[in-house]
Amino acid sequence: MSDELKTYSQAAQQLGVAVNTNCTDPYEAQVIKKKVLESYNSWAHSIYDKSFLNWGLWNKKIAREYENLNFNFSALCPYQDIYSQLLLYYLIRPLIKLKYFNKRLLEIGCGNGIGLKMNSSLIRTQYALGIDLVHKLVSNAENNFCSKGLVSYLQADAEALPLDDASFDIITNVESSHLYPRLECFFSEVGRVLAPGGYFCYADIHTDAKQQAQRLERFVASRNDLKIIKKKNITRLVQASIYRRIIVAEKKFYQMAISLFGSDPEILNKELASLAQAMGISFLPWWKIWVKTEALRPIAKAARHNQYWGGKKLFFYYLIQKV
Fold this sequence. Notes:
The chain is α/β, with parallel strands linked by helices.
């Protein structure tokens, strides 16, 4: 991996290649993974080391449910909004209702590790492990959220997990698989590592190139030990979060961009567009993308008129059980 860190926009451009690439050749897959690793390594050096890396979710009913759990999130991190917390809560919400506690939890694509730490508390895990491809993210997670014998983190590949068969009761994966070049390898590893009776909680941004939901359903249909318990289109819930973060809180969003990129207009304008895309601005319905801040207007206009990079605007959720 190159030691040279990429700009935010350079990293985003490389990730675009990963989003649009499917392959079966292991060598080609490694080339794509290197791009993902380099991109997220660069981002990990520029963002707050306890940041969530997902688009979040917003719904009043779900927010009330979460708040009624009386979970003290501020003990983990006092600086973040509720939206990413709600997406992580939604992922395991059915298991909380089932009181599926004292189990072994694996998060594949754990990022900075805060989501695993949060969900391990919510479902009172016996043990929790977070895996991510990116060394810097795993390092952040280990430094901030490790708990000896209870919560740990490991650098590893989602398509080749260094874990024993049937070694986890719950596997989660959120907003990550659209970057995997060999999706069926990932699904096979989930099926192998998941224990009988266990659950796979899966949510992601659909991309036309990857067609993850369709491929998941084909994979499940090919097995006699997996069944779909629940599937849900949560697009509007995710869009509500993006709208609140970028449009309603546009001044805060703009100040965040300045804190990341500085105030030089030429650099800021270029990087700001990539940040807005990474945070999901073009996933919004076009008629919602209107801002008052002068510097954001060209970005909003481009998001309204340019084709969305993922194709069909869909954010899906699946709960799969191994029987």
